[in-house]
Amino acid sequence: MVVSRRLRFPNRNEHKRARKMMGIQDIRDVVSSLFIMLNKETFVLFRIEFLVVLVTVLFLVMFIIDVFRRHIRNIFMKTMFSILDAISDSIVLYLLGAMQTAKFKNHLFPVWALVLVSFRYNVDFISGYGVHDRHGRRYMEWRNVVKLLGSAFLILWRGSRFTVPLWSLLALQILRSWYRFCEHGLALRSIWHGTSSEVISEYMRAGPHTRNWKPEDCNPENMEGYKYLVLGETNQGIRLKKPRYVLYIHTAQSVKQAERGFSSLVTLDKIWGCRRHLLHPDNKEGNDPKDLCLAFALSRLLRCRLEDVTLQEEIFCINRKLVKTKIIEEQDTNRAFRVMELQLSFVNDYFNTHYPMVFWSGYLSLFSNLLLSVVTFGVVCWLAVDIRKVYKPPKDDRAHVVHGLNVDMIITWVFMFFMLFKEIWEMVSYLVSDWTRLLLVCSYAQWKEEHTRDRRMEGAISSFFKSRITSKHWHGLIDQYVFLESYDDIPRCWNVMHQISTGMVPKKGDGAKLRSAISVPECIKPTILKKLRASLEKLNTSNNLHQPDNTNRNQEEPTIRSGILLPKVVRSLSQRKQYNWACFDLPTCSHVILVWHIATSLCEIKFARDHGVDLSKHGFLSSLSSYFTGCCSSKPYLVDVDVDEMTKEKKVNGKLPDKLKEMYVTANSLSRYCAYLLVSKPDLIPDSFYVPNMVLQETVTRARDDILKKCDSLQSRYDKLMEVAEKAIQDGDDILKEDVVRLGAKLGKELIDQESKEECWEILSEVWAELLVHIAPTWNAEAHKQCLESGGEFITYIWALLWHCGIEKSKLWPVEDVYGNDVENMS
After folding, report:
1. Domain of 168?
2. Are 665 and 568 members of one domain?
3. pLDDT for 429-474, tens place per residue?
4. Is position 326 within any domain?
5. What is the 3-state secondary structure (H, E, C) of 685-745?
6. Are residues 783 and 693 in the same domain?
7. Over the stretch 653-708, which tens digit does the pLDDT of each residue have?
8. Distance CA 467, CA 402 (A)
9. What is the pLDDT of residue 291?
10. In the chain, N or C: fewer CB atoms in 10 Å?
11. Are 346 and 368 members of one domain?
């Protein structure tokens, strides 16, 4: 009997289940082995070493960013600093815990912990916080003390072979944190810093009951009578004088000192009246020290505005003469702007850096900070020598050795080097700062004359003025925005980053893409000073005093702030009244900026076409091309007007005259800069609240969805706008009811058709310079103060100059009667 056997084939489903189960089991085994491996001593040490190196690199990057913070304006860089600050802080806390809970010994752990905490403490030794410290960052000093105490606990728990230098360094760092915290309080209460504005407000009060100074004695040519405080009032007796109880500086001691030719109270007139060699009127080398003192005195007045301390009208009268003589009418344009640059630099130092704390009592506080740095330097060297002489890893120590090299020792030596370098850099930063130069000049000027020339003192002052870490106090850039290139931009990716970063990356609106920033063209500065000069020459103080418009208001009610208004005049259009509507008949400053900006862009496109520039590329291809070419060379305008520094050969086939080139550059750069202010810094222009953003978004929507829809190149956009402008001109009287795009197209076509090439760019360059002067005066001083932290804006220079002249508004822009509106609403 034959028994048949049936062959049984494997079940495919069973194989799949088996493979799946084996795969899951393998993953579990891998994860388990990974956790077991990571808990091994070797990998724990490697993890600590890796994080120590990583956080050191982060601290180094933050240190570099902090040193050049005023020159870094990129939003990504600023956001990166904030992110690195949060990440590095968390890593340091984790490392302290990891070193504490490690199951093996390493005598270098306490060294690493202490040095890391010291790095974290000193990474922003300059720009941590200012005198007023609105964000309470000074309390980070106590947070740093807590971390230092954590390091101390690690030293006690783990033990170390370098106990004495470690404890010395720990005690020194706690002392420095305590000193910096106390130093802030001292600076806040000092007459030279924290209470300076109140003292100056009372000191500068003119009248028959004060002897501090007399406005009628002021002569800006030789600075006689300009008793603006510079240094030394801390050492004087400040009293209240009857019957009006006005503040005055008791000068009895100063009079006795003056009889000997010495005065501890330094004012501007004493700086200019000093007959010693370096500051003698015949010595041109004394201009830099004099400019430094002038800038500091003006910065103290400007701080009064930024701290909402009211000054008398008499101050602005004599201040106007001073600013006009020494800055606006200065023949050397670079010197004039250097004084303004120094002034804003001192203001920025006061609000955003540690310098006022370091110099709160002059040489004494400077010496104290330098002494702490020197002692820290010595203790770190002591610790480094002990490590070099004593340290050899004991048998029970876990050390990372690769090819005979102790990685832990290499990390430690890198730490020591960075620690020493940081202390040297901090001392050098203090010594070559403008504050040290100011102290030296004031010390030199305390003696009015000299019997023998002090060449050593003069050489020291000159060397300090020649030595500096960075050659610029300001980045020297102005941002640019071109509406016809950006209106169709929708920043989806950017706004996704805004949401992911929970607001750390600022949100962008549609059509707000900026061009790369450019250096301020040299032709702009004299043009601006010329317009300021013209405005002040015809400024009638009596006719332009700002008075409340509502006559029904109680006359005894105190006004919040009085000032002078720039007249409603655009002098460059006095002979071309057909364009007046674009300045005087539009509802807001934002409308004026956009209309003239679009017109300027159309004139530039026409100018580029006349010079053979191809503008027919698709928008994406054009952007891509400009990006790659921008990596190799700078081309900020459609027509390349750069001049080669070596050959001085003009481009555009040599057909562009110097005068036309200057007008072309001035008009385009200022047009794009004012448009940038409208888009990115609306608080700096006279319009209030959400007006700039509303006007911009309405214009972007009208251009993208209606007028310029499907126009994908500058050439097609130009042709379309010329067509729209022709129709708008035919409409005649109804033109002011049109939108901003059509108004800009109409103005641009009129300029192109009615003016020659030279006349067109002359009008645009002159109008934009005047518009910038009218845009600058604004009530929002807080916005300018916030911009100073990142280096400031070019318009802040003009705003500060106008404020010193008592000008805070322009009649060119309509002013709403808020008081009257409130009364109507109540009724």
Report:
1. 34-189+362-428
2. yes
3. 899 999 999 999 998 888 777 666 777 888 888 888 887 766 677 8
4. yes
5. CCCCCCHHHHHHHHHHHHHHHHHCCCCCCHHHHHHHHHHHHHHHHHHHHHHHHCCHHHHHH
6. yes
7. 445 678 899 999 999 999 999 999 999 999 999 988 789 999 999 999 999 988 98
8. 44
9. 93
10. N
11. no
